[in-house]
Each structure stands twice: as structure tokens, then as C-alpha cells.
Write a structure and sequence with these properties.
By secondary structure, this protein is mainly β. The protein is built from four helices and 49 strands. The model is unreliable at 1-6, 8-17, 106-115 and 299-308 (pLDDT under 50). Keywords: Signal.
């Protein structure tokens, strides 16, 4: 850490001498400040970069200029004549106030004489001109975004702007593959980009424009004019050249954009662990519900299809996706279909340390996992807007997945050594649909009606084949020469939601919204476990309290009032909902729970100025548990875990508060944000645990034991000359009570993560970044555990000999705990790319895992287990790639 800080310090000191700062105010002839006035400094000599700034709410500006450079500085403001200043190289005058004179016709549009503005800010929209931040080395949208101030792209393709996650991704104002960011940032060519827009409080519904309260952040990609009616993209093929492991890659990203139709195709076949489909993609694509309603949790699980493809010993992935967006008269049709097929083999070794009040048990575990998954998601949406005051929307989605997995597991303790062959199969079918109708029925009255329906069916099967009896104190297993336990489940889920909302605009500063709705969730859940004996007989576990046949029906009828009013810079919204919950469960007996509950909410926003905002939110939430927590009988969950539900569970109640603050000054290259959340459960559902060696039995109970969770996060970034520095902090505190072996124990968890990064931001410099992260974790409960995490990352990208681009990145991770256990893991990747200017061909040699690291080490801590994990990963891979750009 000290070495890293010293490097950053000397880099900053070595470059600060080559910059100077001009400061001052922008005012009019009556001495009134002109907030957000644009200041652009154009070098009078070639080869220098344009500089830009904007005045803050007090009219103050700060403009960082290169020494030994003369600039023509132009200040502009709508309704005023622009003013110019020639700032001589090495001028001693560092303070200058601009006084603008008003135009006679203030409505006259200002004509900007420069070809482009690097950044434009209009209320909730920030627009970046791509060529102001890129140097031509970028291949995809991801690399271009990473060079824009306030924008971050994580390793899974998620995009954040000013600390807020992008929730909708569009190209030319149209959704790109359902609005997910990963497929966009990793497939849209950088040379097709013109501008990037970030739109806060985004709403795609023009009928609700006056009353929309969206908290969504959209990213809209604007293409160059020659790409607006054009087929573009690239096709890549790669093969291994250093060894004979049959590693290969074929990838295609092809796009056609025209005024009335957009088509995109992405295909990928690879054996090098390249992830095309992630958990985030599954979450987005498996949506299919109206944004006006709360998302329904699915009882089937598609997320197993998005395995972490990096930590495997073998990976064969096939992916194909097509997206269509077209408009016929007043109907807009959008749709996408995604297919994914994966074959994955993984190997891991784990040492578990179980804490049980007064004793400690050790387990050595080794597993080999073989995954064969198939998935399809198809979505179609019709958007009909007969006029500006009415809108109809219908969306239908079908999901299918098929899983065939095998796990060879060996678990060893001082008392036993057992080998398991575990097979898992499932077929899942889900159909979702919703319809929306929005109409402005009068000048100040608008209606919204929404109906949402979801049906799903799943039939998972599991079996455990082993050489020794297991869970003998929990399951009615019979003695045999070998043991085969077979489990089946049948899950059918049917939900429907209705919502009618009335928007009443009392005046410009006061709105009243009325909500009436009902939601119904029906679930049929059947589970069965039995032992198939070697003589052919069947030992049915129903006699031992296993086997479930549950009918679950939850209805929530609600009425709510929302009053929104504005006082100066405050936007305040008190909300009150009345919910009538009715829960019925049918199994061994019938249980009914009915509750009438008030749920208040309160939102407040304060806008200091266009760039500085604060918000506060509070809500009281009542939540009933999912169907599987209500089963009366036992369920076998794993080789060492048995679960039993609780048919008498009632609702959890918790208070949620959040406070957010953001201050963004793009032209001064200074940005920071912070948020604080607090969640307090007054009644909570927690699993009571009985632990016998490594075996566990759990059942959920409703308690009055309070739970508190605090979360504080912040980000600060500042551009110093041509280096962007950022600091991130995340702090989390969580306390709760947990019953283990009939003893109630208080647990306290704390986690702190701090990250500092430095990155060059100059089109003529190599792209170099360096970062350091330090994490601390502490758990107090049955035992006290501490862990410490460190990671270091660096990356370099530069062009040489005009047509060559070299890239390299390196990461290392260190984990330690208070038992002096330590793990270390490092990985590096590199590539050399050749592309002759104006040539459609690109040649590349890339190396994954240069250091040929075999094992990824990690230490994790839960309430009663400390685990040391060793995961085997793909070896060094050297590939030769050829890419053809359309």
C-alpha cells in the first residue's frame, strides 16, 4: 500500500508543474451570476487538446490549461453575446471575470462555432462526445466508456454513472437486447460511436411525462451518421497456437440500423471460459413484468445457467441472440430471443471449520462438478400509441431451461469418510405476460391500468448415491451395501396482479395520486424422498415425516394515496398504503392468516443546483415468506442438510431508510457521491439451527428479535492534470440474533472496503491504470473471526509503430484471517493487436493466465463455518485471432 501511494504521489508531482489554472466568474452587466455558462479554450496551435469548463451555481469557473500554450477562450450563455479572450502562453494573469451582454432577442439560438462540445448538460441528461475522450485504441463500447468522467464499467459489463447503476441501455433511443448493458458494452464497436447520453429519472412513457417519478438511469448510444443505415459489426475467429488443448473461439456481433428497423445478432462459441451470459443478464432477460408492479420472485431458478465460467477446468459455451425493433405506422414491435448451452467441469477442494457453541469440527471436502445446461428466453413487446394522450403496451415472454448436472463429492471428518455421486436434473417452463393502458382523460387527470400474469412449472429431480449411510440422525435411512436416495419435486406457480392508478395534477406544485390494486399468488408444491434398496425395494421416507403436498394462496388487496408537492428547492412526497393480506395454506391442516396493515412511506429531494442533489427515502414494509418456507414436513436439501418449514409463519416487518448525496462538476473534473442506508427489522424470520457434527437441521421461526443493518458508501474522483484519481469506500454493519442448538447467540458483522485508483486520461498518452483495495471483516458470534483482504490491479494499453496495440493487465488477491491462515492468488492477461489503418482485418495474439496459475485460493466466513477454498482454473491459453470488421 505504501509503495502504491508513493508511486501515485510522484506521478502527480512530476506532472503538476506543466499545468496552470485560470479562475474567475461569469456575470452579466447587472452583476448577476450566470450559472452553467460554458467556457471553451481552443489552442491556437495544432497538436494541443481543447479545454473546457462550466460555471457553478455561483458563476465561478476553474479552467486548467497547459503551460507554453496560447488559447482562445470563448464564454457562451443562452440569451447573451459570447465573449472571447486570448490567453497568452505563460501569462501571469490567473484571474479573469467574464461579463456578458444580453442580446436583444433572448430567444435567439446560440450558434456554437466549434465542431462539438465534449460534454453537454441539459437537466437530467448528460451527453458525452465520444471523440473527445477516445484515441482510436478502443475496440468496443466498454473501452470508450471507461475514459469518460464519472463512468465505470465492472468486469461483468455493468455500467455505473456517478455511482448510480445504468438500468436501461438503448441504441438510437431503442432498447438493446432487452436493455441490458453487458451485451452492448462488449459488442458494439467503438468506431461506430458518436455520442453517449446518460438520462437520469428516465421514462419511456410520454403520456406520463408530467407525473413520471422514475428512478431509472438510462444510457443511450448515438451512432455516427454513416452507421444510421448500415450493417456494421465484426466477426472473430481464434485458435490455440502454443499447446494442443483444443481451445478455440468464434464470435460475431452484427448490427443493422435504419430509421424504421433495427436488427442485431450476437453469436459466440468458445472453450476459453469467456462469459457471454451472466447473472445480471439472466435477471434482466427473465424480467417480463410491468415496471408499475413489484417483481415476483420465481420459484424456478435460471441463474444456475450463468455460472462463473472463469473458475473451471473445462468450459464449452454456445451462445446465440437476436434482437429486432421495428415500427409499422403507430405500432412499435420489439423482440429478442436468446439461446445458451454450456458444458462445464470444475474441481474444488475445501477445508471447513464448524463452530458449535463449545466444540469445533473439521471437514475436508473435494468435489468435481459437471454441468450441462440449456436455456432459451424469447420476448415480444407491442407498443401502440394512437395519439400523444394514449398508450397501449403488451409484453409476452417464454422461458425454457433444462439442467443436467453431476457432482462427485468426497467429504471426510474424524468420524467418517463418504463419497457421493449426486445427480441433478430439472426442466423449467415459465410464461409471463402483462398489459398496460395509459390515457390522459383530461388536462389534469391521467389513468393507468396494468394487468400482470405469470405461470411457471418446474420438475427438479435429485439423487444421492453413496458408499455409507449419511444424516442418520435426521433421515429414516435403512442399512444397505450401498445407498441411493431419490428426490422429486413438482412446483407450479400462478400469479396475477391488477393495478389502477389515477394521477391528478392539482397545480404545478401539487400532485395527488390514487392507487387501487390486488395481487394473488398461488403455488402448488409437492416433494418426495425415498431410498431405493439394492434388492429393489423402496424405503419411502414419508413414514419418517418427509413428503409434502402444499397449496399456498396469498392475496394482497391495497389502496394507496400519494401526495407530491414542491416548496422552493424541496420536492416532498408522503405516501400511505392500506394492505389487506390474506394467506391460506392447505397441507396436513388448513391455516389462514388475515391482516390489515398500514404501510407509510416518505420521500424528499433537495436540489442545491443542477449538479448537486440530496434525497431521503423511508418506507415501512411487511413481507410474507415464500411457499417453500411453509411446508409441514421435512425436505432433504443436501448431503448434510435437512429443512422443515413452518406453516404458522406470519409477516416480517422492517423499516428502510436511505440518504443520498451527489455533487458532480464535470468540467472541473470533480465528482463525489455518498449514500447511507439503514434497515431495521422489528419482526424477522430466521432459521433455527441444530448442528450435529457437519450435519444441520434448520426450520424458520418468526421472532421479535430486532435486526439492524447499516450500509455507508461513497466515491470521490478528481482529475489532476491528466490523471484521474478516485477513492471508494464501503462500510457495512449488521447485527442479529441466531439460535444454534437451542442457544440464542448475538451475531455482529462488520465489513469495510476501501479502494484507491489512478488512471491516465489523455488521448496521446498510453492508457495506464493502477488500483489498490483493502478490506476488513469481523464476525462475533459463537466464535470471533477476522479476515483481511487485499487486492492490487494494474493495466496498460498503448499504440506503437502506428498500427500495433499492446495490452496487459495484472491482478493479485491476498486473504488472511486471525488464525494466521493466508491465501494468495494472481492472474495476468495480455494481447498484441495489429490493424492497418482503413483495413477491415485485425490480427491478434492474446494470452490468458500468463503466469499459468493453477489454483484460485480464498477464505470465507459464515455464522458458524470458516472455509478455505481452492478452486482449480483454466491453464495458460495462447491464441491467434483474426477479426474481420464490416
Amino acid at each position: 500500500m505504501r509503495f502504491f501511494l508513493v508511486i501515485v504521489f510522484f506521478i502527480i508531482c512530476s506532472i503538476c508543474h506543466s499545468q496552470s489554472t485560470l479562475i474567475g466568474k461569469v456575470i452579466n452587466v447587472t452583476n448577476q451570476t450566470l450559472a452553467n455558462a460554458n467556457i471553451i479554450a481552443l489552442p491556437t496551435s495544432n497538436g494541443k487538446n481543447l479545454k473546457f469548463s462550466t460555471a457553478n451555481s455561483k458563476g465561478e469557473y476553474s479552467l486548467t490549461l497547459d503551460t507554453n500554450t496560447t488559447y482562445e477562450i470563448t464564454v457562451s450563455y443562452i440569451g447573451y453575446h459570447e465573449q472571447k479572450l486570448i490567453f497568452e502562453a505563460n501569462s501571469e494573469n490567473k484571474i479573469y471575470d467574464f461579463i456578458l451582454k444580453p442580446k436583444e432577442n433572448k430567444i435567439e439560438e446560440i450558434v456554437i462555432k466549434y465542431e462539438y462540445k465534449p460534454i453537454e448538460i441539459k437537466k437530467d441528461t448528460v451527453t458525452f462526445n465520444v471523440k473527445s475522450f477516445t484515441n482510436g485504441n478502443e475496440r468496443k463500447l466498454k473501452e470508450a466508456l471507461e475514459k469518460m468522467p464519472g463512468v465505470e464499467v465492472d468486469k461483468n459489463g455493468g455500467v455505473t454513472f456517478q455511482g448510480k447503476k445504468v438500468t436501461q441501455t438503448m441504441v438510437e433511443n431503442r432498447n438493446f437486447f432487452g436493455g441490458g448493458s453487458k451485451l452492448a458494452v462488449e459488442n458494439i464497436p467503438a468506431d461506430a460511436l458518436d455520442k453517449i447520453e446518460f438520462i437520469d429519472n428516465f421514462s419511456a412513457n410520454g403520456v406520463l411525462k408530467e407525473v413520471s417519478e422514475s428512478d431509472q438511469l438510462a444510457m443511450n448510444v448515438k451512432l455516427k451518421k454513416d452507421k444510421l443505415k448500415f450493417v456494421f459489426g465484426d466477426i472473430q475467429g481464434a485458435a490455440e497456437i502454443a499447446n494442443d488443448n483444443n481451445f478455440n473461439l468464434v464470435h460475431a456481433g452484427l448490427f443493422y440500423y435504419a430509421p424504421k428497423i433495427n436488427v442485431g445478432y450476437i453469436g459466440d462459441i468458445n472453450t476459453i471460459g469467456k462469459s457471454t451470459f451472466t447473472y445480471e443478464d439472466v435477471m434482466r432477460f427473465s424480467g417480463g413484468y410491468s415496471s408499475f408492479l413489484n417483481e415476483r420472485k420465481s420459484l424456478t431458478n435460471l441463474y444456475s445457467l450463468a455460472n462463473d465460467n472463469k473458475d473451471v477446468v473445462k468450459n464449452e459455451s454456445q451462445f446465440s441472440a437476436i434482437n429486432l425493433d421495428t415500427k409499422v405506422n403507430k405500432v412499435n414491435l420489439t423482440g429478442y430471443s436468446i439461446f445458451s448451452k454450456t458444458f462445464i467441469s470444475s474441481h474444488a477442494i475445501t477445508k471447513n471449520q464448524y463452530f458449535q457453541n463449545a466444540t469445533t469440527i473439521f471437514e475436508d471436502k473435494s468435489d468435481n462438478t459437471f454441468v450441462n445446461n440449456l436455456m432459451n428466453i424469447t420476448n415480444v413487446q407491442l407498443d401502440y400509441q394512437p395519439n400523444k394522450n394514449e398508450k397501449w403496451l403488451y409484453n409476452a415472454q417464454y422461458q425454457f431451461s433444462k439442467n443436467n448436472n453431476k457432482i462427485d463429492l468426497n467429504t471426510s471428518t474424524t468420524l467418517s469418510n463418504i463419497f457421493f455421486e449426486n445427480l441433478l436434473k430439472s426442466k423449467n417452463n415459465i410464461f409471463k405476460q402483462y398489459a398496460e393502458w395509459h390515457k390522459k382523460i383530461a388536462n389534469k387527470h391521467t389513468l393507468t391500468f396494468v394487468i400482470n400474469h405469470q405461470f411457471e412449472n418446474s420438475t427438479p429431480e435429485k439423487n444421492w448415491k453413496t458408499n455409507e449411510a449419511f444424516l442418520t440422525n435426521f433421515i429414516p435411512i435403512q442399512t444397505d451395501s450401498e445407498y441411493l436416495i431419490y428426490q422429486t419435486k413438482e412446483i407450479e406457480n400462478n400469479t396475477i396482479d391488477f393495478l389502477l392508478k389515477h394521477y391528478w395534477i392539482l397545480n404545478n406544485a401539487n400532485h395527488l395520486y390514487t392507487n387501487i390494486g390486488v395481487s394473488n399468488w398461488q403455488t402448488d408444491l409437492i416433494t418426495s424422498e425415498n431410498q431405493i434398496l439394492t434388492n429393489g425395494n423402496i424405503n419411502d421416507f414419508n413414514s419418517g415425516g418427509f413428503g409434502n403436498n402444499l397449496e399456498y394462496n396469498l392475496t394482497n388487496a391495497f389502496f394507496g394515496l400519494e401526495y407530491k408537492f414542491k416548496i422552493k428547492k424541496f420536492l416532498i412526497k408522503p405516501i400511505l398504503y392500506l394492505h389487506n393480506y390474506n394467506l391460506k395454506t392447505f397441507q396436513n391442516s388448513k391455516n389462514t392468516i388475515s391482516k390489515l396493515l398500514l404501510q407509510p412511506q416518505f420521500n424528499a429531494d433537495y436540489e442545491f443546483n443542477e449538479n448537486e442533489k440530496a434525497s431521503f427515502k423511508y418506507k415501512l414494509v411487511n413481507s410474507f415468506s415464500e411457499a417453500n418456507n411453509y411446508v409441514d414436513n421435512y425436505v432433504l436439501q443436501s448431503y448434510n442438510t435437512v429443512f422443515k418449514g413452518n406453516a404458522l409463519l406470519e409477516n416480517e416487518t422492517f423499516h428502510n431508510l436511505s440518504l443520498n448525496y451527489s455533487n458532480r462538476k464535470y468540467f472541473n473534473s470533480f465528482n463525489w457521491f455518498a449514500f447511507l442506508t439503514y434497515n431495521k427489522k422489528t419482526t424477522s424470520i430466521r432459521n433455527q439451527l441444530v448442528i450435529d457434527g457437519i450435519n444441520q437441521f434448520s426450520t424458520p421461526v418468526l421472532t421479535d428479535n430486532p435486526e439492524n443493518n447499516w450500509r455507508l458508501a461513497g466515491n470521490f474522483s478528481k482529475k489532476i492534470y491528466k490523471i484521474n484519481l478516485s477513492f471508494n469506500a464501503l462500510l457495512n454493519w449488521f447485527d442479529y440474533l441466531q439460535t444454534v442448538n437451542n442457544e440464542l447467540t448475538r451475531y455482529e458483522r462488520t465489513n469495510q472496503i476501501f479502494t484507491i485508483k489512478a488512471r491516465t486520461q489523455n488521448k496521446k498518452w498510453p492508457d495506464f491504470s493502477i488500483g489498490y483495495t483493502k478490506g476488513f471483516g469481523n464476525l462475533k458470534g459463537v466464535t470471533t473471526s477476522k479476515n483481511f483482504n487485499e487486492s492490487f490491479e494494474t493495466a496498460l494499453n498503448f499504440r506503437f509503430l502506428k498500427d500495433f496495440v499492446f495490452e496487459i493487465n495484472y491482478d493479485n488477491y491476498i486473504t488472511k484471517n486471525n488464525n494466521n491462515n493466508k491465501t494468495y492468488f494472481e492472474i495476468a492477461n495480455s494481447s498484441l493487436r495489429y490493424n492497418k489503418k482503413n483495413s477491415p482485418l485485425t490480427f491478434e495474439i492474446f494470452v490468458n493466465n500468463i503466469l499459468n496459475t493453477k489454483i484460485k485460493n480464498n477464505i470465507s466466513i459464515s455464522d458458524y463455518i470458516i472455509s478455505e477454498n481452492k478452486t482449480f482454473i483454466l491453464p495458460r491459453i495462447v491464441m491467434l485471432s483474426l477479426t474481420y470488421k464490416l
